[in-house]
Structures are given as C-alpha cells and as structure tokens.
Amino acid sequence: MKSLWNDIEAKKYQTDLQLRVYTSRLLGRNSSLVLHGGGNTSVKIKEKNLFNEEEEIIYIKGSGWDLATIEEAGFSPVRIAPLLKLAKLKSLSDSQMVNELKSNTIRANAPSPSVETILHAILPYKYVDHTHADSIVTITNNQNGLARIQEIYGDEVVIIPYVMPGFDLAKTCAEKFSAEVTEKTKGMVLMNHGLFTFGETAPESYEMTIELVSRAEEYLEKHNAFSIKIEKQEITNKELRYDLAKLRWEISKAAGFPVILKRYGDERSLAFTRRKDVNTLSQQGPATPDHIIRTKRVPLIGRDINSYVAQYKEYFAANAPQNSEKITMLDPAPRVILDPELGMCTVGKTVKNAKIVSDIYQHTMDIIERSTALGGYMALPTKDLFAVEYWELEQAKLKKSSNAPIFTGEIVLITGVASGIGKACVDSFLQRGAAVIGLDLDSAVEELNKKPDFLGITCDVTDEKAITNALEKAIQTFGGLDMLVLNAGIFPQGCDINQLVTEHWRKVMSVNLDANLILMRECHPFLKLAPKGGRVAVIGSKNVPAPGSSVAAYSTSKAALNQLARVAALEWGKDGIRINTLHPNAVFDTKIWTEDVLQARAEAYQLTVEEYKTKNLLKVEITSHKVAELAAEICSPVFACTTGAQIPIDGGNERVI
Ligand code: ZN
After folding, report:
1. Residue 453 and residue 351 in contact, taking contact as beta carbons nearer than 8 Å
2. Domains in the chain: how many in total?
3. Which tops the pLDDT comparison, 326 or 515?
4. Are residues 256 and 204 in the same domain?
5. Hey, which residues are catalytic here?
6. Residue 489 to residues 59, 329, 419, 507, 514: CA-CA distances in angstroms?
7. What is the pLDDT of residues 594-603, one digit of tens each?
8. Ligand 1 center–CA 18 separation, angstroms
9. Which of 502, 521, 511, 523 minimizes the C-alpha distance to 441?
10. 108: CA distance to ligand 1 center in Å?
11. Which pLDDT score, from 0 to 100, does residue 329 have?
C-alpha cells in the first residue's frame, strides 16, 4: 500500500486540525482502508475556554461524515477529562454513552461524535487513526487469525480480541493497551474489526497505518492470497428485465417498502456467484461490524425470497434475548443476492444505499476469497453478528420518525427529458426521492444530471428495439418501474389540412401517438409489479378539449393519445395501475418558444410578451416547473383514487371550462 502523502498538497494545511483533515482524507481516498463513512480519526488539542482555563479537547470524526470528504466542521470537539472518567465506569449503556458524548461537546451545532470516541480518548497520543483495512480484516477473519497477526507484527502491536464497538470495547482497549504497551508498540489490531495507529504528528500516525497495512498485504502476497485470479466468465446477453423486476417486487414485499435493486453482471461478481463453495463461504456473514450493519447478516443465494425470509425469522427468534421486548425484528428482506445468472444484486431503500451495499460486498468478496486462499475464511459467530445487526443504537435510528420523500425506493421513466416539461419532471421526481430514467433523442440526456439516482439514455422512442434496450438497461440499473411519464412529443409548424403533407402527418403520429403505445405496452409488465401500484402521467394538451386551427396533426395525435390513456385506465385498473392526463396550455419556457417567436406571437395579438404569457382567466404564467409538479403529484398518494382523469393546467380557459 502506497502512502498518498504529498508535501506540496500538505502545505495547504497548517493547524493541527487542518492536518487532521488532510490525513483523514488520505485514508478516505483508499477504499481498501475505509468505505462510505467507515473508520474514524481524531486529534487532541489544548484550548482555552471562556474563563481562560485550559482544557484538553478531542476533535473526533462526527457521524454522517465521510473521511474522504471530511472538513474541519466534520470533527466534533469533546472535552477529554469527562471521557477519561467515563472509561473508568464498570458499565455504561450505549444510549447513555451517546448522551454523555453529545453533552460534553463544546460546540452546540457539532455533529454527533463517533461511538468510538472514548476509545480514541484513552489512547495517549495526539493523533489517532482507525481504519477497517481489508487486509487486517482478511487475516483476522481466518482460522488461524490470531497466530497470523502475532507472526506478522510480533510485539509491535497490541491485539484486542473481538468485542462489539461501544463502551465495552473502549474499556477492554483501555485496560489491555495500558497493560501491554511498550516502546515497541506501533499500533493496535482489533480482531475481526480493524486497526488503530497513532502518533504525535498527523503524518506519523498516517504513515504507520500504511506501514502496518503494507505488512499485512505482503504477508498475504507471500501466501499467494493477495492477487486473486478471476476466471473468465461467460457473460449472458439474455434479457433479464422480467426476472429482475419480479425479484425486486418480491423483495419489496418482504421488506414492506419499495426498494431499489442494482444488478452487477461483471466478471468478478459472476465468478464469485459461480464458485462451487459460494454457499459455505458467503453464508458465514460479513467481515467487520461496519459491514454487518450495512449488508445485513448473509446474502441470498439464488432467488428464493420466501425461504430466505423464513430463515431470517428463525434466526431472529433463535438469537433475540428472551426477556427483551425492546428489540423489533428488522425487515427480513436480503440486501445482497448472489445468483449464478444474475451475478450480484444489491438492495437499498435508495440508489445510494444500494450502491453502498455493493461497494461493501465487492470488498467482502475480496476478503472472503483472500482469506479462503490463506487457509479458510471464518467470520464472527452468529451471536456476534446478531448483536451488531440488532445494536441498540441502530434500533434507535430506526425508531426515529422517518421523513423520507414520498417516492423513496420508487422508479420513474420519463420521456423527452432534455428540455422543457420533461426536464422539469426529472427535477420534480428526483426531489420526491424517485430514481429517474430519462429518455431523449438528444444525447445530452446522458449528462443531464450527475446524481446516481438519474440514468439518462439516448433513445428514439419511435424505435421499438431502442425502447426495449432502454428498458433492459434501466431495470438492470434500478430493478423495476413504478411510474411512467409520457411527455416526449413534437409540435410542428402550423399548416392547414388542405396543405397537410402525408409524411408530415405520419411523423407527428409516430412520435406523439405510436411511440406512446409501444412504451405503454412494453412498460405494462413492470408497472404491474410496482409495490405501490403503477402510475402513468400523460402530458396531453389544451388542444384536446379545445383544438385550434392549423395544427390538425398535433391536435389529432394528442386527442388519440388521450383516448388511448382512457382505454388503458379501463384495462389496467385490475392491475392496480392508474393513468391520468394533464392538459397544459401556453407553456412558454420550452425549446420551441424562443424570445423572437414569443415576441412575434405577442405582437400578432397586439399584446406585450407579459400579457401574452398570462392570457388566461387567472392571469398566471404556466411554467414547465408547474406542469412537472402536477405530473409528480398525480403520481402521489393524493391521487390514489383517481384514474382515467383529465386535468387542465392552463390558468383557466373559457373554451375548456
Ligand atoms: Zn471501527
């Protein structure tokens, strides 16, 4: 493992805390040291309080911060004196400990200090770095883990047997460390957990992490257990979207809420899922407490959700303390699915969560395979896995009332998203927590939004094959489809019927009507599997109830689409799918309405642009955003009892009313 310390870069960091920020980020840059908020670091600083008294303060990583991107504000300042007193107590419950940590911070708006704060405080060094280094975890989750660690480090590290994070771990470390520390001590290894290093300066502590981890890596390398050869895998190009959507539906049902399911069909994942011993290896559980919390106990092998759920219930019943009514069973749905055809699939309430699970399991696969090559992977006993998964603090988090956005875990497909109403719809649905698939003819769609919750696909919606390909990609990325917004359409130049060219007519019909039939037909099987019922929002037009002259093709296409939606409402009600249409009018912030066109049209009516834009009963301007908000709302539970409806959004129009 290479040190990432860079003298030029480091010059930008001057104070003790700034240097703490810098080396924390260096640790965070290496995913085999820490992953997604895992690990923690601290620095002890003497400061004067308001009474001019000197106090020793520990700045410790706050919860919710990631080492890779941490800033000074991400460190929580806690008084050390009371922490050292706490460490002498016989016992302290986790919630009491969290309360003490929070009460002893010296900044009211500081993030909650890490649950490992006391552990950092008792180590008598200015800088302390704690990581869940893959190689240490690989070696300690091994049949001869302890002997191997002793062989690698001799008396240069203090070894702590596995204890669950929290007060007991801090206390065990305090006692064992002070009893065993010598001048030779370079760090502390926590079995099945990770590594602590320390130093008087930030680089000293950081470089020690690199040194100790490198020695573990060299040991693995020496035993041919570091570079894992991945056998070439046959990658299927079979369509998987129906299987995946069914799986997602079953998992959502088991979880009790809609989930995102991401598929990883890469060679590495396939090789692992196709190992003959995948059952014995993967069913032992994850490698470190941090991973247990995020990926749950063990992965599902294959696709039999029912038996997984039954096993999970048994596991809970067998391990939950008899006398405790405080422990509620977590949802029994798996978070990782290993299937020889699908590869690895990961599950989360949000795309971000599903990605965290996959990152962690990618590392877990490495750890398991390396440890197996070393002689045998051996995870913690079931009771310890259970204790972490059902940790008091994790339960408390669950009980906090959830203010999740309404579309959390749901997936929407929107057409024509590169501009105008479609683009605004992307924002409205993302804001409500949905994962969004955006289709557009314009390849700019692929760069439209950098969020992992957004997938932009270049697609000509008049091309059937392009639509099915897009759906395949979409469902491999998010797992299913709950909502559909039919927005893509063209608004051609005005032309009277007696001048209307057949080709022009057909073109309008193919985009505004035919494409939507294909989309509806191809999306139906997935909408039917939406855990909360499928929803379709159709962007119609005021021209449906109140047509204008010179736009025959456009008006007719939208009227036919409207009728298609009404028939779908009749046919799909039994599948729990509702479909409603919006009829916007005079939405001027779209691509077709340039300043010049707007000016010309206003002049034709002898109006100012402002008057022209608000030419309706309510004298309001109809923007893309307002239409998008309504499109999102008609997919929300507010409209749970409505289907086949047509809702104008036009500021009030005499001809429509
Ligand atoms: Zn830890």
Report:
1. yes
2. 4
3. 515
4. no
5. 554, 558
6. 56, 48, 12, 11, 11
7. 888 889 888 9
8. 22
9. 511
10. 25
11. 87
